[in-house]
Amino acid sequence: MDNTQQREEGFSKMENLELQARVRELEYDCGELAKSNSELTDRVRKLATRQPMWPKGYRPQNRKYNNK
Q1: Which of 1, 20, 24, 54 is a Cys-bridge partner for 58, taking CB atoms 3.0 to 4.6 Å apart?
Q2: Does the residue 35 lie in any domain?
Q3: pLDDT at position 33, please?
Q4: Which domain holds residue 46?
Q5: What pLDDT digit, counting tens, does each position of 5-29 carry?
Q6: Domain total in the chain
Q7: Distance between CA atoms of 43 and 37, rounded to whole angstroms?
Q8: Residues 42, 30, 27, 10, Cα dihedral to 10°
Q9: Torsion over CA of 18, 24, 29 and 30, rounded to 10 degrees?
Q10: d(C-alpha 42, C-alpha 48), whole Å
């Protein structure tokens, strides 16, 4: 009976250590994703607010089509 109790305790401790390692790994991944997300958000905000630029040499013409 004592041997099975020790085995169960050892098993639960090992499972606890594995779960803690997994949590640390997931927290690191979450931090990396949050950093990447904030960088991409800043980039999108910058691109969304900038003035559009025409290619060099391009001259848009305003043509009105008269449908008679």
Answers
A1: 54
A2: yes
A3: 97
A4: 1-50
A5: 888 999 999 999 999 999 999 999 9
A6: 1
A7: 10
A8: -170
A9: 120
A10: 10
Q: Does residue 22 fall inside a structural domain? A: yes
The predicted pLDDT at position 66 comes to 66
User: What is the per-residue DSSP string for the chain?
Assistant: -HHHHHHHHHHHHHHHHHHHHHHHHHHHHHHHHHHHHHHHHHHHHHHHHSPP-PPTT-----------
Q: Which residues contact 60 (CB under 8 A, 6 or more apart)?
A: 54
Report yes or no on 67 lying in a domain.
no
User: Residues 36-60: pLDDT tens digits?
Assistant: 999 999 999 999 998 878 788 887 7
- Which tokens is 31 given? 């931090």
